[in-house]
Design a protein that fits this description.
Elements (H helix, E strand, L loop, with lengths): L19 H22 L3 H72 L10 E9 L7 E4 L12 E3 L4 E8 L4 E5 L6 E6 L5 E6 L8 E7 L9 E4 L11 E11 L4 E8 L8 E5 L27
Antiparallel strand pairs: 1-2, 1-12, 2-5, 3-4, 3-12, 4-5, 6-7, 6-9, 7-8, 8-11, 9-10, 10-11
Length: 307
């Protein structure tokens, strides 16, 4: 059989239809037509709704294992966190109970010693709540304005505190408002006591050189003061009650050639963002009045002299 007599046509199984380019053009046109028709006439919406309804339940079933795993993981993590928080809360409660018992014991012992030594009882400071209205307009000072004034019983030099410690004291009183000078103001000063050494000193506002800080001045270069020491009010100025937290020592620069140490303090009570404060009555208002000076009695006449 010669090669020219062979049938070169493919069998029916391998016969190809339209070309790939023709198929691409047809189906692209069909897809574009369906998209336009669906957008304008919503012709596929019923079909889509039927398919979505039919597949809703299988989709929910397929999501159940993943949701169960996530919920189990969240439960275990939350359970561990809850147990840890409960343990921390129980420990904190025990520590607070211990501190409360010590405070009660110390108060009873203090009252007993005062009675034994015939000392007057400790001063109970009266206080009232106030709200901060705004900062003072002077940009070169650190002052706040509160909504309590002379009509509410606020007097000059009243200490102002919050839950952390001392903020400052009232320096101007108006009928329905008052101006509070903060401890960090350049003109502020407060007598303090170092809790570790029981040494008394005075803390002054840092001013522009050390904005937001206090400074212990006139301390000897070899003074026993360390970074981290806590200072509180000493109570010797008849203004601040003793024992209120004031600041912590942040840096100590011992200048032996100058003979003094430069000690900077970081206030414990931060005034930024504070909204509510307590205005205390100065302790001097509850102290007994000073006795009048006794006039010197006239000298007794000598013998032979007339009175």
């Amino acid at each position: 059989m010669t090669l020219g007599t062979l049938d070169r046509t493919p069998p029916p199984f391998f016969r190809q239809g339209p070309s790939a380019l023709a198929k691409l053009a047809f189906f692209s046109a069909l897809a574009l037509f369906l998209m336009v028709a669906d957008t304008r006439f919503q012709i596929v919406e019923p079909v889509r709704a039927v398919i979505a309804t039919a597949l809703h339940l299988p989709q929910r079933w397929l999501l159940v294992p993943g949701q169960a795993w996530r919920k189990a993981s969240d439960y275990l993590v939350g359970l561990d966190a809850a147990l840890a928080n409960e343990q921390a809360a129980r420990l904190d409660l025990v520590q607070q109970a211990e501190r409360a018992m010590r405070v009660e014991q110390l108060q009873a012992e203090n009252a007993h010693l005062r009675a034994l030594l015939d000392l007057r009882p400790a001063i109970k400071v009266r206080s009232q709540a106030a709200q901060v209205l705004y900062d003072a307009a002077d940009p070169f000072s650190r002052k706040l304005v509160i909504d309590r004034g002379s009509t509410h019983g606020v007097v000059l030099a009243s200490p102002v505190v919050n839950e952390s410690g001392v903020l400052g004291q009232v320096t101007r009183v108006y009928p329905i408002s008052s101006e509070v000078t903060l401890l960090t103001d350049k003109d502020a000063a407060i007598p303090v006591l170092n809790l570790r050494t029981q040494a008394r000193s005075a803390a002054f506002g840092g001013g522009s050189a050390h904005a937001g800080a206090l400074e212990l001045r006139f301390l000897a270069g070899n003074a026993d003061v360390q970074v981290g020491d806590t200072v509180t009010t000493s109570g010797v100025d008849a203004v601040y009650p003793p024992g209120l937290p004031v600041a912590r020592v942040s840096s100590v620069d011992r200048r032996h050639e100058a003979g003094f140490a430069r000690v900077l303090l970081a206030p414990i009570a931060v005034a930024d963002g504070v909204r509510h404060v307590l205005v205390l009555e100065p302790t001097g208002a509850q102290m007994p009045p000073k006795p009048d000076p006794v006039e010197d009695s006239p000298p007794k006449p000598k013998k032979g002299q007339r009175k």
